[in-house]
Amino acid sequence: MIVKNEEENIERALSWGKGIVTEQIVIDTGSTDRTVELALKAGAQVYHFQWIDDFAAAKNFAISKAGCPWIAMLDADEYFTREDANKLLEYVEKLQDSKYGQILTGLANLDDEGAMIAGGSHVRVFRNRPGLRYKRRVHEYLACEGEKDCDLVDASEELCIYHTGYSGKESAKKQGRNRELILAELKEHPEDGEMLAYLADEYFSEGRFDEAREAYREAIQKMEPVPMDYSVRNAMTFVKFLSMLSKQGVDCEEELIKVYGQAVSRLPKEADFDYVLGRYYAGKGTFGKGEEHLSKAVGLLEKYGNTYKAMMLSAHLPETYELLAACCYNNGNLRGCVNYATVLLRQNPYLMSTLYLMLSAFRQSEQEAEGKPSEDAAEVAVFLGRLYNFNAMKDRLFVLKAAMKAEYGSLVKIIRGMFSEVELACVDMAVHK
User: Fold this and answer.
1) Can you give the pTM of this predicted structure?
2) Alpha-carbon span 101 to 98, nearest angstrom
3) CA–CA–CA angle 169, 175, 181 (5° rounding)
4) Which UniProt keywords apply (predicted)?
5) CA gap 330, 324 in Å, rounded
6) pLDDT classification of 433: cutoffs 50, 70, 90
7) What pLDDT score was predicted for residue 96?
8) How far is the CA of 13 from the CAs of 10, 109, 126, in angstroms?
9) CA distance 88 to 86
10) 381: which DSSP letter?
């Protein structure tokens, strides 16, 4: 790993590989804290590298010091869980005599509280081969030249790297540094559309929206076709540009729709485009379009998965289902509201806002039926019995509170009938406090 002043992270960064890896190599680029001391204490080999504003050069120097057939190139703010580290060892042992030379793993970006803010996949584990080296001074990537056994195997569903470097305080540290390296790269390669997109990302994160807008436009113009049907960087260019435009309000709506059209034309399997549009329309109260785009996003995720795709949607899937249920409810699609709420409640039945939405939809459906066939409160109670254990006081209380909040009187009566007189007396006393 490449480090500089990582005393807060270095011990955890080296701990996940204990008992798994044969050697741990730390390349220090000028630490002034206890990073080197702690790395040596943990048993790592430490080498010093004169920083030359080039991450690829530093990583390639690290590779040159490795003596094992496989390399895991993680940053100091990245780690595997112990369970996944053990799986990784099994993976490389199975792949040793295969054609595969790169392992694609999941990647979960965490905020300051440890919550996932984005998910995706990346190659951090690869064979130690002369033809596998990093390119580009910043936002570097692994390139394979002249190697037969460097095909990629997808292990993103089985293995995940956790990355804390997207926390607020860490992102702030990187902004200015990355921008200068990107500008240096663009000076040498002015037609590099990917670097223009990274520059736009920097401007966006700094709140320099006009400059970001121009950079994103230019990046899209210079976007090169890809031989496969997917490109992570191209997708992120569109996703971040759409996110920025969606936050700028109705003044940018025309361009938002135009960029969305360009995005789905180039990358029709990407769910995040519709996720961003769905959230935008839901936020402005256009629930029909919100439902349309969010349901399309969920459908794309189900069909194509999240390998190299759907990073934002994957990180916010529960919230998306609840927002989709809310859009359906406000759009009059009560059955859709119930269906999406059910998906979410099967995963976590104790989401009050979700159950409230579901019961509100059932109540409204019953009111609108006026003698037509519909679920009555008794049928709803039977349905809820598949999600909740009504023998448990906790579940009865939870459903009762939601039914009362939804003003679903007929269901409240049925749920109250599940309590004994003594229990009801306690419940009523608590409710009226």
Assistant:
1) 0.80
2) 8
3) 145
4) Transferase
5) 10
6) low
7) 87
8) 5, 15, 18
9) 5
10) H
Answer whether 352's CB lies under 8 Å from 402's CB.
yes
Q: How far apart are CA 16 and CA 81, in angstroms?
A: 7
CATH 3.90.550.10 placement within the chain:
2-163
The alpha carbons of the chain give a radius of gyration, in whole angstroms, of 26
CA distance 418 to 264: 51
Tokens of 72: 């895991």
Q: Is the pLDDT score of 171 beyond 70?
A: no
- Report whether 47 contacts 27 (CB < 8 A): yes
Q: Which one is predicted more confidently, 118 or 382?
A: 382
Q: Which amino acid is at 50?
A: Q
2-163 CATH: 3.90.550.10
DSSP state for residue 251 in the 8-state scheme: G
Q: Which amino acid is at 190?
A: P
Identify the pLDDT of residue 370: 65
Give ranges for CATH 1.25.40.10 in the chain: 189-315
- What is the rounded distance in angstroms from the CA atom of residue 393 to the CA atom of residue 380? 19
| Residue-wise pLDDT tens digits, 310-368 | 889 988 999 999 999 999 999 999 999 999 999 999 999 999 999 999 999 999 988 88
402 C-beta neighbours (distance < 10 Å), count? 24
Q: Which structure tokens are listed for 210?
A: 């006009």
Residues with Cβ within 8 Å of residue 147, at least 6 apart in sequence = 101, 127, 129, 130, 131, 132
Q: Which two tokens stand for residue 78?
A: 């990245």
- The fraction of the chain above a pLDDT of 70, given in percent, is 94
- Mean pLDDT confidence for 291-318: 92
Tell the CATH topology of 189-315. Answer: 1.25.40
Tokens of 59: 């990583």
